[in-house]
Amino acid sequence: MNHKHSDDAMQSKWPQDQYTKVGSSRTRYWALGEQGTIVILLHGGGASVEFWLYNLAALAQSHRVFAVDMIGSGCSDKPSISYSLSEQAQFVKNFMDTCRIHRASLVGNSMGGGVVLQFALMFPERVEKLVLVNSFGLGKHIDLFSRLAALPLIDRVSWLLRPTRQSVALVLKPVVYDSSIITDEWLERIYQLALLPGTLNALIKLAQTNLNIFGVRFEVFSPIINQLSNITVPTLIIWGKQDPVLPVAHAYHAAQGLTNARLHIFERCGHFPQIEHSEEFNQLVLDFLGNTFV
Question: Which domains does the chain have, with CATH numbers?
């Protein structure tokens, strides 16, 4: 069943913005929940904590949940770095250190999933469980729009790419199965974030580091695929069957390669299962986090 999100219901749901310094970078996050194990939610490239709006409160009923604006995204600082997966994984570790979080379960959507996989390879002792949601880093194939953002010299014409309400809608609506799920108020919030200084340049840098015109760079996904069997923590793989950005075939690659994985494919679902099927998504993740594998 597809849940429609209403603007009225949303207005009371925006969590409080909080900020901390991670290294020298001012970082925005949302935090909710007083008890249970710690869960960290990591959004995709060019996204923000807003992409976890429909999940935070539900997961916080039995966990301490943090949604983080990744470095270069949302309201967090956008320094001039390469935005490689390893730099982003190091940022997550530094965020955990700053917040005195020793171990956590990590949930990553899209680029955030690639960061989660990289993190698990770099800092295995800091990971409780993993949830990969339409995850980046599991193969070469990615949509044409993402590949175009990685074109050489695209930054020279970035003024052409200055976001409008229409262009933000044109990017987001085609990647979900049913575009009516995206409300005007939520879209307006995403548009306002897209206008923040440095956002577009950071996104171009992220794309150019990780992609080329042919797809995800070999040197980005190959080390992850080759080391999947080294990731032994319990992992839940969630995918939208009709994802036009990252194909559902990547979900099966991950399920085969990981040592301790279970797989759930959502029908009639695109790139954002956590938004498109939020109630079922939340229940799935809660069940997974609450139970260790037998």
Answer: 12-290 (3.40.50.1820)
